[in-house]
Amino acid sequence: MNAPPKPPPAEFSRPFNAAVLGEGERRLNLEATGAERSKLAERFAIPALDCLSADIVLTLDDGGRRVKAAGRLKARVVQTCVVSLEPVTTTVDVAFERFFVEGAPSNDWQGEPEGEEIHLGQSLKSPPDTMTGGFFDLGEALAEQLALEIPQFPRSERAVFEENRSGAEPEKGWKVEKTKGENPFAVLKKLKPGGG
User: Fold this and answer.
1) How big is the CA angle at 67 (ends 64 and 71), to the nearest 5 degrees?
2) Pairing relation of β-strands 171-176 and 25-31?
3) Which residues contact 60 (CB under 8 A, 6 or more apart)?
4) How does residue 119 score in pLDDT terms, banded at 50, 70 and 90?
5) Distance (Å, whole) CA 131 – CA 146
6) What is the CB neighbour count within 10 angstroms for residue 145?
7) Residue 62: its pLDDT value, please?
8) pLDDT tens by residue, 8-55
């Protein structure tokens, strides 16, 4: 009988063993390499991911039954404007909390105890992430967190919403503000191989 195929390796993998935490806390700084950022950019279907790092504090939570990862995620994401096709750079700098428990999350997960706050991407109804044998992947958790922060419809500063009343019916939509002497085909030329 053939073994099931192994899942592809995570683009940004930083496995951690909860057993080393003990009763204290562990402070970590994680940073993606250039190769890892390139693979993540492919995963997110964006032109580039210029930087990705996080400062994290790991502690045992809920009587030692789960690991709490709290910290700050920083990244610089390059996308394509949905209006002008120009590159748009977004700086991400957000606080986050994630929780890891052993095994698959139960179907009766009811969220955090009343009064405990979850930030960005893990709502009160979201199950925690999974540990296997005490191990969990902090890099993949950060990649998932970043995916929540990337703008769905990036627009450059020159993309403006206009209402044109020149016709019988007003036309509303996104337009690109032109600068004096600008060639309207300059942006398209830059997108061609060897252009610009």
Assistant:
1) 140
2) unpaired
3) 18, 21, 23, 66, 67, 68
4) very low
5) 20
6) 23
7) 76
8) 668 999 999 998 887 778 999 999 999 999 999 999 999 999 999 999
Q: Global pTM?
A: 0.68
Which residues on adjacent β-strands are paired with residue 159? 176
Q: How many residues does the chain have?
A: 196
Q: Which helix (H) or strand (E) holds 89?
A: strand 87-102
What string of DSSP letters covers 56-87?
EEEEEETTTTEEEEEEEEEEEEEEE-TTT--E
Say how far apart CA 97 and CA 59 lie, in whole Å: 11
Q: Residues 47, 80: contact at Cβ < 8 Å? A: yes
- Encoded amino acid at 40, one letter: L
